[in-house]
Amino acid sequence: MSIFVAQHARRPSVEATAEVVLDDLDSWVTPEAKFVVLPENVFGDDGSALPPTLRERCLERLAGLARRRGTYVLTGSWTEERSGGGPVRVTRLLDPAGSVRARVERPILPDGTTGTGDDFPVVETEFGHVGVLLGPDFWLVEPPRIECLAGAELLLVAGSLDGAQKAAQRAAVWGIATLNTVAVAFASSLGGRSGGGSAVAMPEGFVAEGDTHECVLEAPWDAERIRHLREPDLRFQQTLWFGLWARRPDLYAALVDGQDPIGSASKERVS
């Protein structure tokens, strides 16, 4: 079983970019694929809505890919006009029948970046439980942790490395995989705000990386590996279960309220 992650440069138009991306997926994704992941702003990032006819054509081709390869496809995100509201970025998870199993939308902020949200779907599949994340939700502590506590063994991320510290962001992809004992398939495009850096990470390290070149990454996928790493191992010799399950719920109030439980305890002892 494999995970495929698309990383492409932007062409002069969204139509041209879409043709290249979709043709490459048709060529490179094999029947071994169980998940295919496309990035945030997959066909362009100028903030304009994807023309409805192009959107439908892209969805149709991605659904066809899902059916032919028997794989789940995270469509990446593009801009759509929300009924009765402003523009939003939307990503969908298509199942092997080509049907939408999850949909995530986020507002577009005044500076053109993607906003955050509070819905974090986890989908049960025959290849493991997967969480779907879009844009900056991935870089926050809570969304990946929420999905992993809900059972996600693999995070599918339509994202981008668009900050000034791309090396630190790249390292954070692995860090999130380790701290949450989860696999991460992170797709990022090339051009505009986004600087590549697509990767598939396991808690022990990267298993595939895209750097700054166009590619369709392939990485092995085995949900049993994540399940093994989540098994309790009090000697900390074989598994990484502590990353997800070793928790102190009694400290949540301090986190939410901004209290200093260590300082407070010290004061109590002194008094």
CATH H-level superfamily title: Carbon-nitrogen hydrolase
Arithmetic mean pLDDT: 88
Biggest sheet descriptor = 7 strands, mixed
Q: In the CATH hierarchy, what is the class? A: Alpha Beta
Distance between the termini: 61 Å
Supply the number of helical segments.
Answer: 8
- Provide the CATH architecture: 4-Layer Sandwich
Classify the beta-strand content into a percent band: 25-35%
CATH topology: Nitrilase/N-carbamoyl-D-aminoacid amidohydrolase
Multimeric status of the protein:
single chain
Uncertain spans, ≥5 residues at pLDDT below 50?
265-271
Strands, count:
15
Number of domains: 1
The secondary-structure class comes to alpha/beta
N-to-C series of helices and strands: EHEHEEEEEEHEHEEEEEEHHHH
The helix fraction, in percent, is 25-40%
GO molecular function, one term: hydrolase activity, acting on carbon-nitrogen (but not peptide) bonds, in linear amides
Protein name: Carbon-nitrogen hydrolase family protein
Domain CN hydrolase: 1-234
Keywords: Hydrolase
